[in-house]
Specification:
Length: about 150
Amino acid sequence: MIQIGVIGAGSCDGALKKIAEEVGAEIARNGAILLCGGLGGVMEASAKGAKNEGGTTVGILPGDRRSDSNNYMDIGIVTEMGHARNVIIARSSDALIAVGGEYGTLSEIAHSLKMGKTVATLNSKWEIEGTLKAKDPKDAVRIVLNGISKS
């Protein structure tokens, strides 16, 4: 199955949560697995959206306890690697969608682009060379699915 990474800040406002939730729902509607950092903010909202549509969610956790994951994770991968787990998220995703985000998100984008992965940005300040700007959640998922099919 296709694994789409959703990356973004662990804390965000309600408007960004709504966007992330719709991204997750769209991923599930397209039959893909949602992969994220497993914690709060964009990660939790996107996982909630995926679960509401019957999707599967995987969290790559920074700490040493699976119980740290949000309530919408089907599978929690404990790494005890802190931010270094961002490389695992990038490597394990077939393509990624950045919703908002801070410096951790930027590192995931950079690793993903270095690996040749498609990265769509949505309401993100990290619209850098190599990323593809999406106009809405449905467009973001379309962009990454098209990128996967071309690779």
